[in-house]
Amino acid sequence: MAASTASQRHDMRAIEEEENEVLRFEDEDIQESIEKCKRSLIGKLLADRKFSSGTLEAALYAIWRQLEGFRVMDHGKNLFQFFFSSEVDMLRVEKGGPWSFKNYILHLKRWREDNPIDEKEFSCVPIWIQL
Question: Consecutive sets of 10 residues in the chain, 131 residues long: mean pLDDT of each?
Fold first, then answer.
């Protein structure tokens, strides 16, 4: 019993040390990440069920014509970030909206450095209807 308690204390100390560790990023790494984000769109899938980034990435890769370097990052609550290698591809996708996925609207907005990713940004969707 004493060995088990000592082991648990050792594990807790290791976790605390790991949590207190400071990570340092080089300016070049930060700038490179910002440049990648500048070629990304933030999207909210307006759905009543959860979708995975893998499912969305596979489908949109085909729908958006096999974009080179395309990838999707999940931010939770059906909020995703779509990365593009080419600004031309990103603009084509952005201008081609609104998009739908499995009969749900995928609302896209351009990533902005000064604007945190927030699902409240997606409360209104402009659409055009022909009568």
Answer: 61 65 67 74 93 93 87 93 93 90 92 72 75 86
CATH of 40-119, one of 2.160.10.10, 3.40.50.720, 3.40.710.10, 3.30.70.330: 3.30.70.330
Q: How far apart are CA 93 and CA 109, in angstroms?
A: 10
Q: What is the pTM of this model?
A: 0.73
Cα 24 versus chain centre, distance = 23
Beta bridge partners of 72: 82
Cβ atoms 61, 67 nearer than 8 A: yes
C-alpha 110: how far from its chain's center?
12
In degrees and rounded to multiples of 5, residue 85 shows phi and psi of -75, -30
What are the Cα distances from residue 112, in Å, to 35, 36, 51? 11, 11, 24
Q: What are phi and psi of 87, to 5 degrees?
A: -65, -30
